[in-house]
From TrEMBL:
Record-linked Pfam families: Acyltransferase, HAD_RAM2_N
Membrane topology of this protein: Multi-pass membrane protein
GO MF annotation terms: acyltransferase activity
Organism for this UniProt entry: Datura stramonium (Jimsonweed)
Subcellular location: Membrane
Transmembrane segments: 21-45, 230-256
The name this protein goes by in its record: Glycerol-3-phosphate acyltransferase 5
Ranges for domain Phospholipid/glycerol acyltransferase: 290-391
UniProt KW Repressor keyword: no
Main location: membrane
Keywords: Acyltransferase, Membrane, Transferase, Transmembrane, Transmembrane helix
Family label: Belongs to the GPAT/DAPAT family.
Phylogenetic classification of the source organism: Eukaryota, Viridiplantae, Streptophyta, Embryophyta, Tracheophyta
InterPro entries named in the record: HAD_RAM2/GPAT1-8, Plipid/glycerol_acylTrfase
Length: 478
């Protein structure tokens, strides 16, 4: 049996300094005050590192970022927010060695060593890196379930726990830095240190890709380095003013003018394809409006589509906040998620005219499309697929945790928000249910052509899967 022990920071992850992950924890689990406090202490933490006191700097970072936060909230952020940023920082050279050494036999042990508290990394390394064991520090938790900010053992005890894990057996290979402060390399038969030049000669057939992070949450788009964190703090007061102004513009001005005002407000809308003209007045021959079937990236998708079409088109909504509905410039129609009731609601709206619907039922930030509900295909043959995509610089527009009423504020706080709208041709009759196709076949076809347009991967994941994964009820872990 072969086994491998790898350090996380600076090896499997490119960045040897975990400070940005604690900034994320402070921002998402506590708020701006703790976020700002940790940033203010960064020069002291950096000074400790310069003078060879990295462990003291890390302990200070852990204390400021975590002390007084409920352990359940720490676990939630570690599950829903941090994995995406860990994944983006994976060192593929180290990962190739890691996979080629131990993934060709299920009996092999795969161990990751980290100075970061175990709870912050365990979800990511066990689910996305397929690791068997995580050896890290443990947080001290009060009897009321709050983290004290202290760790139970010093970092130099980590190597002792590896000895306990393997017993008389010696790990086959150790991947780590020479100066990691919790040296375990001497316990391994073979040692390898960055930059892992030998990884170029590995058998590519043995390489297994990390499991991608499809669902994640949190407000920040990029890792909050000290520099970017300072920019965020300086921008937020101005961003709130700009967001308020942008929302008021949308409420006051006619919708046909907003497309022309968007560049002046720091936004950009890229339109591709040919938008269909407004449906004519309802007649016996034309008893239903057009159903625009859109991919779902943010709560703004229907509004952007209406702005492009320069008319107010009602949008089917699922779980947006009441505040978002109140300030929406276009009519919103909330579904009940009871099938018979929703069928009547959608039919009634289509009888009045055009309608916008996102059959994924929830947003997905990554380049994946969730499974489309087949309900739309049952109700009309006048289907126009629309591929929506967006890019934001600082804040994500939609979140599953926290206050959803803040979604519009964070969305419009971005200095520049770019939307891309691609109109596909209306489905021909032979691609709809009128030709005898099942609703599921039609829904899958629409998902496929929209995925191909955006370059996204189509999945069978649903809204329920998303919230099960984000809540830890996915059966994969926890």
């Amino acid at each position: 049996m072969e086994s491998i022990v790898s350090e996380l920071e600076g090896v499997l992850l490119k960045d040897p300094n975990p400070f940005c992950y604690f900034m994320l924890m402070a921002f998402e689990a506590s708020g701006l005050i703790r976020f700002a406090l940790l940033l203010m202490l960064w020069p002291i933490i950096r000074l400790l590192e310069v003078f060879g006191r990295e462990d003291y700097g890390l302990k200070l970072t852990i204390f400021v970022a975590i002390a007084g936060i409920k352990i359940s909230e720490i676990e939630s952020v570690s599950r829903t927010v941090l994995p995406k940023f860990y994944y983006d920082d994976i060192n593929m050279e180290a990962w190739r060695i890691f996979t080629s050494t131990c993934f060709n036999n299920n009996n092999n042990k795969r161990v990751v060593v980290t100075k970061i508290p175990r709870i912050l990394v365990e979800r990511f390394v066990k689910v996305h890196l397929r690791v068997d064991y995580v050896v890290g520090t443990e947080l001290v938790v009060s009897k009321y379930g709050f983290a004290t900010g202290f760790i139970k053992d010093d970092f130099d005890k980590i190597s002792n726990r590896i000895v306990e894990l393997f017993g008389d057996e010696q790990p086959s290979l150790g991947l780590g830095r020479a100066k990691c402060g919790c040296s375990f390399l001497s316990l391994c038969k073979e040692q390898s240190q960055p930059p892992f030049l030998n990884s170029k000669n590995l058998d590519q057939q043995l390489i297994i890709n990390p499991l991608p992070v499809i669902f994640h949450d949190g407000r920040l788009v990029n890792r909050p380095t000290p520099c970017s964190s300072l920019i965020i703090l300086l921008w937020i007061p101005l961003g709130i003013v700009i967001a308020t102004f942008r929302i008021l513009i949308g409420l006051i001005f006619p919708i046909w003018t907003i497309l022309y005002l968007t560049p002046l407000l720091g936004g950009k809308v890229i339109v591709k394809g040919n938008p269909p003209p407004p449906s004519p007045a309802t007649t016996i021959a034309n008893s239903f409006g057009v159903l625009f079937v859109c991919t779902h990236r943010t709560f703004m998708d229907p509004l952007i589509l209406s702005i492009v079409l320069q008319r107010k088109i009602p949008a089917i909504t699922y779980s947006i906040s009441r505040l978002t509905e109140i300030i929406s410039p276009i009519p919103t129609v909330r579904l009940s998620r009871t099938r018979d009731v929703d069928v009547r609601i959608i039919k009634r709206q289509l009888e009045k005219g055009d309608l916008i619907m996102c059959p994924e039922g929830t947003t997905c930030r990554e380049p994946f499309l969730l499974r489309f509900s087949a309900l739309f295909a049952e109700l009309t043959n006048r289907i126009v697929p629309v591929a929506m995509n967006y890019r934001a610089g600082i804040f994500h527009a939609t979140t599953a945790r926290g206050w959803k009423c803040m979604d519009p504020i964070f969305c419009f706080m971005n200095p520049r928000l770019i939307y891309e709208v691609t109109f596909l041709n209306q489905l021909p009759e032979d691609a709809t249910c009128s030709s005898g196709k099942s609703p599921h076949d039609v829904a899958n076809y629409v998902q496929k052509i929209l995925g191909a347009t955006l370059g996204f991967e189509c999945t069978n994941l649903t809204r329920k899967d998303k919230y099960n994964i984000l809540s830890g009820n996915d059966g994969i872990f926890y």
